[in-house]
Amino acid sequence: MELEELSVAEKAAMLSGGSEWDSRGNDRAGVPSFVMSDGPHGVRRQLGEGDHLGLGASKPATCFPTAGTVAGSWDPALAEQMGEALGREAHDLDVNVLLGPGLNIKRNPLCGRNFEYYSEDPIVAGRMAAGLIRGIQSNGVSACPKHFAVNSQELRRQASNSVIDERTMREIYLTGFEIAVREAAPMTIMTSYNEINGVYAHENKHLLQDILRDEWGFDGMVVSDWGGSNSAVAAVKAGGSLEMPSPGFTSVRELEDAVKAGALDEADLDARAREVAKIAGRTRLDGVGRDDLLDESVIKAHHEIARRAAEGSMVLLKNETALPFRPGARVAVVGDMAKTPRFQGSGSSKVNATREENILDELGKLASENAASANTAAPVVAGYAPGYDRQGAVKPELVREAVDLVSRDDVDVALAVVGLDERSESEGLDRATMAIPQAQNDLIAALAATGKPVVVVLVAGSPVELPWHDDVAAILYIGLSGQAGASATVRALTGKVNPSGHLAETWPMRYDDCPSAGWYPATGRDAVYREGPFVGYRYYETAGVPVRFPFGYGLSYATFTMTGLVADETGVTVTVSNDSDVAGATVVQLYVSGPSCGAAGAHAGADGAHGAAGVLRPARELKGFAKVTFAAHETRDVRIDFDRYTFRHFDAAARDGAGAWRTESGVWTLSVGFDAETLPLSMPFAVAGDVDATGPDPALGHYLTGDVTHVTDAETAALFGYDVIARSGRDGATTFGVNDPISSWSGSRGFIAKTVANTLKKREASVREKTGAPDLNTLFILNMPPRAMSKMTQGMVDAAMVDAIVEIGNGHTFRGLGSLIGAYFRNQSANKRTAKEINHD
To answer: In CA terms, which of 147, 355, 547, 838 is 20 to 30 Å from 618?
Structure first.
């Protein structure tokens, strides 16, 4: 039977999940159900129906480095190798759609989910994601890039409205997705929880139809984040294909009623059903059993791939000749994380790793292996001390023990493994500070005071403040490096691997230096992106704000130089030399400065005047890169081609307000180097565009110099084209709706509602304090608006019941309870009728 011949109810049923992880198929149309599973750096195939936050047991799978770490490799080919392994495991574990990668822009370093995202720059994010997607889909499994789009904070993540100007959205927050779609053709894409300029992402026609499908050519399935669908009817109209996890038959009835009433065109329903059926057909996993586990040979091979990914991604941040360890060096290992590793974040991406390593044991193994072979070149472990309490408690005795160890005569160097704990980086919870626990800072200071060189291995999925930077001899940033990260780290420390990673995000000196620090995270409904395009290095380089480490930064045991920059109509070529006695790899980076930044790419003057007449731009923007490996003393040319993204900007006023991509004619500046600040070669380059360069609006004021921390409301209105601040919502509401989070009920007039919200908040804080890890389910409930209940309860709750629950939240306790009970029984009867209709009973 053809899909179009099915009843409206049958087609509608295909557009929502049948369980936590499974779609609904249709036997009459020959459409099988398919399985979706997290995650972006390891398959989390849960046993039974489980939960979507990673608390339930899952089948063992390889835990690869997180996206925030792999981005440090600047190597899409490495990401593709990792993706091939991910896709193979998804296939073997009977997963049709793997939910990843995450490529939201890192707007602020405190976002709790930044470890799952690649970069603050869309070119890096898009190219790395494209590599992973190609690898995953080479196995016949669908990748699912997420969260589309403009999703930058965890606080109120299901009840937040991202307010952003069109140009910034297109150039910064959507370009990474565009690259992934155009270059890797993902079969599926996941929408974000939030609204974008007042419209939920899963029912945003501008996003899903105008941009994703019509402009980029996406022809796959759009799935909601779990519980992220608001209106099933609005989603189908706008281009949302599948809502997950399982609203039961509530959405089926809503869609059926809308078609009958003429409020929904059945052709739209057919289009969405075809998109779901297409995924079911393209990802068939015939012959694979759901109880299968990974073969031991696969586990071993993929552990090695995870190690290579970690080796290629770690970033050497500082090195005063302390690394690699000299032959026979006697090393005191300090730090709880050296023995009890932290190699991934918390939340839906958490993987049940097939193996686990720690740095202390890996150093010991290396020493034992070399002792057996009479090799005296390897370092020797002189001793171990935990150094600090894992949960951040101040324990001076642990510091004294570590200092005593390092002070011994038989110790040459201290290796301190420190970083963020499990509570700091998690889905559902933003970081409160950019600092690591003070107990660890105190430890580093005490170790440095011994006079022995201190080498720091830094474990964190995002930037941290480094008050002891000047006092230590070396810093190796390993990020969240996956299950093989410990052996990879030891190989880098001992010189078996030459670190080649470069930072994919800027590390500010302190959090207050961040452009969005004054308004992040938004505590109310509206998150206004008032910094505009000045995100990450685009801000620091334009406004001239000093940073700890610039975007693109990374050291090596080798040294590299660049000469001979040449440009033609299609790209640039530069000669790169490895001037050292060791092989190594580096990242060649191309930055472009528009005509508005002047012929030399200088900052705008103090009065806000630009060196030439062009649209508002950051001082420079990354437009291409190449990861290149060199033998000792090798010299060769490196080519970086121009593409559709190199010189364009989005003109929101073009085509009668529909907007269009434009290229300004004029003299641009091309700069090539090793990071956003270290650009030894620059040259002017004439661009023949499709529009003449026109000066920015003087009303933009502080935006003209990138000084977004001082922008006024009037200047923000000039950027957005309307008074965005006046239109934005304010806190303090006392009447709640279906889209206000449960956490807001703490201000309710009703005793029950207030008690529920406050009890949940206290429970989450208590669990986090006792266990050292966030209570993800409680956080999810607190961030959840009541309307999500009808999307996540397999039909137990419908829209009428949600309305009754909201009445309770607004203090009408008894009336709400009465309505809830009545609606419950009506919903049960309606579910039985719909089930009979769909199953033809």
So the answer is: 147
pTM over 0.85: yes
Backbone region of residue 571 per phi and psi (left: phi > 0; alpha: psi in -120 to 50; beta: other values)? left
Query: Which of 3.40.50.300, 3.40.50.1100, 3.20.20.300, 3.40.50.2300 would CATH assign to domain 1-32+188-282?
Result: 3.20.20.300
As a whole number of angstroms, the distance between CA 220 and CA 143 comes to 11
Which residue among the candidates 92, 165, 225, 412 is catalytic per the annotation? 225
Given CA atoms 552, 439, 398, 471 in this order, what sign does their dihedral have?
positive
Residue 92 annotated as catalytic: no
CATH topology of domain 558-696: Immunoglobulin-like (2.60.40)
Per-residue buried b or exposed e for 296-323, using 16+ beta carbons within 10 Å of the residue's own CB:
eebbeebbebbbbbbbbbbbbbbbeebb
Please name which of 181, 501, 567, 144 lies closest in space to residue 314, comparing C-alpha atoms: 501
- Find the DSSP H helices in 347-471: 359-372, 396-407, 438-448
Q: For residue range 470-493, what is the model confidence (pLDDT) as tens digits?
A: 999 999 999 999 999 999 999 999
CATH tag, 306-519: 3.40.50.1700
Here the tokens at position 418 are: 């420190």
All structural domains of the chain with their residue ranges? 1-32+188-282, 306-519, 558-696, 742-839
Q: Per-residue pLDDT tens for 340-388?
A: 999 998 888 899 999 999 999 999 988 777 766 666 578 999 999 999 9
The count of other CB atoms within 10 Å of the CB of residue 248 is: 24
Tokens of 572: 């640039």
3-state helix, strand, coil in the chain (%, to 5): 35, 20, 45
Please state, in angstroms and rounded to a whole number, the distance separating the CA atoms of residues 144 and 614.
37
- The CA R_g of the chain, rounded to the nearest whole Å, is 27
Q: Using alpha carbons only, what angle is made at residue 333 by residues 327 and 338, rounded to the nearest 5 degrees?
A: 120
How crowded is residue 284: how many other Cβ atoms within 10 Å of its Cβ? 12
The CA-based angle 19-25-30, given to 5 degrees, is 165
Query: Among all chains, which residue has been given the structure tokens 């989005």?
Result: 650
Taking only the tens place, the pLDDT of each residue in 199-256 is: 999 999 999 999 999 999 999 999 999 999 999 999 999 999 999 998 889 999 999 9
Residue type, 450: T
